[in-house]
């Protein structure tokens, strides 16, 4: 039986989702970058703050490599995920699986966009001045060395460790302390949903990549879209 063509195929859904996430992420970051001083905090509720910080690392400010190596790693990872999605949508798959991968890809792309271009188009943010746009290439850093903008801070619990606790006794305890951005949230949510609900699909990664040529060669048993 022939398969009817669908306007919003999973491939198009993936592209649309990635574009929407990137746009939302950049709107938030540019708004914060151009309206707040570095370290400035806006209290929304007792457990939610908009706090402007920048970092050179991965999600939630974690750093394992130097900036250039980290940026190149991100680009390579984005390329691999994008290639995998392209091959996946041509095979039997779950729409939710594609959505999770797309959300993760969009989050990673959102942060690498900061590293690629923010140093070229923005002044450096400081605790005393709000950064502004500058002519392309005359910003605070070179290509791939821009800093990632973070702003969401959720100190859900703020208390102190009991005095009897070794090492931490009497010290402040904050849950949840990392400051993150919309792209970080997309990566985390996409990854958690992926590992909880789509483990079987994850096991098929090698099969999809290794046999992609065969899938693209026009297998006569595959359904074709109705003209």
Automatic annotation (TrEMBL):
Active site residues according to the UniProt entry: 150, 184
Function: This protein specifically catalyzes the removal of signal peptides from prolipoproteins.
GO biological process entries: proteolysis
GO molecular function, one term: aspartic-type endopeptidase activity
Substrates-to-products reaction catalysed: Release of signal peptides from bacterial membrane prolipoproteins. Hydrolyzes -Xaa-Yaa-Zaa-|-(S,diacylglyceryl)Cys-, in which Xaa is hydrophobic (preferably Leu), and Yaa (Ala or Ser) and Zaa (Gly or Ala) have small, neutral side chains
Protein name (record): Lipoprotein signal peptidase
Encoding gene per record: lspA
Membrane topology of the entry: Multi-pass membrane protein
UniProt similarity note: Belongs to the peptidase A8 family.
């Amino acid at each position: 039986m022939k398969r009817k063509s669908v306007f919003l195929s999973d491939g198009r859904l993936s592209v649309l989702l990635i574009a929407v996430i990137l746009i939302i992420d950049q709107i938030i970051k540019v708004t914060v970058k151009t309206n707040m001083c570095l370290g400035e905090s806006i209290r929304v509720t007792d457990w939610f703050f908009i706090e402007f910080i920048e970092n050179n690392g991965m999600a939630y400010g974690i750093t394992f490599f130097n900036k250039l190596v980290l940026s190149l790693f991100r680009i390579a990872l984005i390329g691999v995920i994008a290639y995998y999605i392209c091959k996946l949508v041509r095979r039997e798959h779950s729409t939710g699986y594609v959505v999770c991968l797309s959300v993760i890809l969009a989050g990673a792309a959102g942060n690498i966009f900061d590293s690629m271009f923010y140093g070229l188009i923005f002044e450096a943010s400081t605790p005393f001045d709000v950064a502004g746009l500058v002519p392309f290439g005359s910003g605070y850093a070179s290509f791939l060395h821009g800093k990632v903008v973070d702003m969401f801070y959720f100190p859900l619990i703020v208390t102190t460790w009991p005095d009897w606790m070794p090492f931490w006794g009497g010290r402040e305890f904050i849950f949840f302390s990392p400051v993150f951005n919309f792209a970080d949230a997309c990566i985390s949510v996409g990854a958690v949903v992926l590992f909880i609900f789509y483990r079987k699909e994850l096991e098929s990664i090698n099969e999809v990549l290794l046999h992609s040529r065969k899938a693209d060669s026009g297998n006569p048993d595959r359904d074709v879209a109705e003209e």
